[in-house]
Amino acid sequence: MDLTELQRLMEALYGQSDRARGVPSTVAWLAEELGELAQAVRKGTREQQVHEFGDVLAWLASLANQMDITLDEAMQRYLDNPP
């Protein structure tokens, strides 16, 4: 799955409810998922780590969708002029 497909999937599955929840709540959920990923990386199994990476990607895609930003657009600078 590429980034565009990820965003399309998240829009199809959760777009309406994500927009109703709003950007501030989505940022909070993303932050919570990042914390869970950090914990899984430190102490979790590979299965838990894979699960949490998926959750972070899903919430990031949801937030990008709400902000009308494509993840491809966000990553373009790494192609054009990496930091």
Q: Judging by the overall fold, what is the CATH architecture?
A: Orthogonal Bundle
CATH homologous superfamily annotation: MazG-like
Low-confidence residue ranges: none
Specify the number of helices.
4
The CATH topology is: Helix Hairpins
The count of β-strands is: 0
Outline type: globular
Mean pLDDT: 97
Strand content: under 5%
**CATH level 1 name:** Mainly Alpha
Computed structural class: mainly alpha
CA-based gyration radius: 14 Å
Largest sheet entry: none
Secondary structure: helix percent? over 70%
Span of the ends, CA to CA:
26 Å
Structural domain tally: 1
Kindly describe this structure:
With 83 residues, this protein is mainly alpha-helical. It is built from 4 helices and no strands.
Which labels suit this protein?
83 residues; globular; Helix Hairpins; 86% helix; mainly alpha
List the helices and strands and how they pair.
Blueprint: H1 3-21, H2 23-43, H3 46-66, H4 71-80
